[in-house]
TrEMBL record:
InterPro entries: Aldolase_TIM, TIM_sf, TrioseP_Isoase_bac/euk, Triosephosphate_isomerase, Triosephosphate_isomerase_AS. Pathway: Carbohydrate biosynthesis; gluconeogenesis; Carbohydrate degradation; glycolysis; D-glyceraldehyde 3-phosphate from glycerone phosphate: step 1/1. GO terms for cellular component: cytosol. Substrate binds at N8, W9, K10, G174, S214, G235, G236. The gene is tpiA. Belongs to the triosephosphate isomerase family. The keyword Isomerase applies. Homodimer. Pfam families: TIM. It is found in: Cytoplasm. It comes from Candidatus Staskawiczbacteria bacterium RIFCSPHIGHO2_02_FULL_33_16. Keywords: Cytoplasm, Gluconeogenesis, Glycolysis, Isomerase. This is Triosephosphate isomerase.
Length: 251
């Protein structure tokens, strides 16, 4: 299984010029790398500017919940899975804690987005993770179980292989307070157990699970070699071309 390194640019950078510069630096420096799958998730408006690296979107809309694909519709401001697929986008981040928090994205909406993306052939990167408060009150397992079970409701065994799960403890995102190796390892095991309960052992063992939360070039290697993750979701550090390239080269 190739290690998956996903850059989540969030709402950055502020100009097309900067976005192109960042993308080109990463593209040039990662040419010829075979053992790592690098995916760049820029804001929607930059997606069509890029080629030469795999692309992911940071969000998507759903048109219906009933497994019927509508190509377009009256949904002001939204972007459909088909539009992304048509641009050559392969992945889509769904359920990021910032979307849950600022856009009030619920587990039900996340589930719709996942099902619709799968139907179109996009690979969802489902983000899950507990807050500081939930961690301190011993609710991590419960939170992960609810988030994953709800998000994957109605997702068939045959579709599950196209899902990536990103374990992103909310308290570790953008704080510099990255999750320890031991804690990450135990969370990854919990997630595999939840998937095993939902599907089966084989799917649990082969589902790509990645970690995100204050990843940088110094901690990258320990996550990949010591925690059982299959890759990383990188926010802040992916905005600095040198640092992001360092992350990839440290593997
Ligand atoms: P961070 O963000 O690397 O800046 O902590 C990760 C994420 O939110 O995906």
């Amino acid at each position: 299984m190739k290690t998956l390194i996903v850059a989540n640019w969030k709402m950055n950078p502020s100009t097309k010029k900067e976005a192109k510069k960042l993308f080109d630096s990463v593209r040039k420096s990662t040419k010829g790398i075979k053992n790592i799958e690098v995916v760049i998730c820029p804001p929607f408006v930059y997606l069509s500017l890029f080629s030469g690296l795999k692309l992911g979107a940071q969000n998507v809309f759903y048109l219906s919940a009933d497994r019927q694909v509508k190509k377009s519709g009256a949904f002001t401001g939204e972007v459909s899975p088909l539009m992304l697929k048509d641009l050559g986008v392969e992945y889509v981040i769904i359920g990021h804690s910032e979307s849950r928090k600022y856009l009030n994205e619920t587990d039900e909406v996340i589930n719709k987005k996942i099902k619709e993306s799968l139907l179109i052939g996009l690979k969802p990167i489902l983000c899950v993770g507990e807050t500081d408060e939930e961690k301190n009150s011993g609710k991590k397992l419960e939170v992960l179980e609810v988030q994953i079970t709800q998000a994957l409701k109605g997702v068939m065994k045959s579709e599950a292989k196209n899902i990536v799960i990103a374990y992103e403890p909310v308290w570790a995102i953008g704080t510099g307070n990255n999750c320890s190796v031991d804690e990450t390892m135990s969370s990854i095991l919990l997630i595999r157990k939840i998937i095993s309960k939902l599907y089966n052992r084989e799917i649990a063992d082969t589902t790509k699970i990645i970690y995100g939360g204050s990843v940088d070039s110094k901690n990258t290697n320990s996550y990949i070699t010591q925690t059982g993750v299959n890759g990383l979701l990188v926010g802040g550090a992916s905005l600095n071309a040198e640092e992001f390239i360092e992350i990839i080269k440290s593997l």
